[in-house]
């Protein structure tokens, strides 16, 4: 008789290779197989020793997957209500330029639609059919290629859950959106980093070498890239698509770039996924609505694995309402692009900042002339102006400034001038 005692407490799994009879302590017997093994559940402990003596005391974290015990949490941006409490300021007195949010908010149709919402007590459509139909009309790609999510962040995680086995590899091209590295860690994947060049362009030759040598499952790319605002041209993207790797192209900021989305490309390239969001374009960051275009051979499996009610009633209603006012969306985009150019020119006049040209709704600045980037961020926060600083080594000397309304730019510049 061989016995395995689980948790050293009141039940055991007993494996009897010699006898077909149950022992007196066993209450359940499984069917015999050809090898003559009997599986039995014991109602008494195998050993009467204490848990403390055996070192088998159970704590909550003992149930957590091993790789998650060392996971560092994602560092999100704080919302108005938290900032208001911490800074002792009214929300309307805070200049929030740290999260690339759309300061103009959604079209008025969104608030009207939310106010007349009829069925908040009914589960949402698990297929988001109304939204996907509206997105098909908006993007020009059929709805069967489109999947909606609770923000593009949910879709990033869903892709990884469907594609990656523990120990599989992804390629990340920092500096870039840190959610890719975070979700890879959650899914027990390995991250191979291929750093961008000094101008933030992709090192395509190095990417090709890594794909050949390491055999990663997928590569995550952002265009425009967060945090620098650079874009990936067609030639570069086509070179990467020629590699045997799944390419996930994040177009969260594509509206501000002046280039066309590659959503329709998924009909031609089986190894391409394109992600989009309503957070920047339509001012719906707080309602969490994202979507993506997928090859039909891939989207089938995402439909199987996604949470059934992942897009709320409020989120779908809001996104559909926003798409009904394309004139508003276009006007806001134009206003933000114009303000981006104005902000860039003004930041160039600051003696300790070196701003980079951007195709997005934010500007990355190198902090120079002996000024400390982290302290700059903290000094501005004391004046209720919030910008983004990064703790990672590659960006420790940089700050990122979101594009706001003209009055937000004016407030920022006034505070910056007080520092020199």
Automatic annotation (TrEMBL):
Q: What is its EC number?
A: 2.6.1.9
Report domain Aminotransferase class I/classII large positions.
93-414
The cross-references to InterPro entries, in alphabetical order and at most eight, read:
Aminotransferase_I/II_large, HisP_aminotrans, PyrdxlP-dep_Trfase, PyrdxlP-dep_Trfase_major, PyrdxlP-dep_Trfase_small
Q: Which Pfam families match?
A: Aminotran_1_2
Q: In which pathway does it act?
A: Amino-acid biosynthesis; L-histidine biosynthesis; L-histidine from 5-phospho-alpha-D-ribose 1-diphosphate: step 7/9
The alphabetized UniProt keywords are: Amino-acid biosynthesis, Aminotransferase, Histidine biosynthesis, Pyridoxal phosphate, Transferase
Coiled coil residues, start to end: none
Example of a GO biological process term: L-histidine biosynthetic process
* Entry superkingdom: Eukaryota
Write down the top EC class of this protein: transferase
Q: Does the keyword Transferase apply?
A: yes
Reactions it catalyzes: L-histidinol phosphate + 2-oxoglutarate = 3-(imidazol-4-yl)-2-oxopropyl phosphate + L-glutamate
The protein in question is named: histidinol-phosphate transaminase
**Swiss-Prot/TrEMBL cofactor(s):** pyridoxal 5'-phosphate
Any one GO MF term held by the record is:
histidinol-phosphate transaminase activity
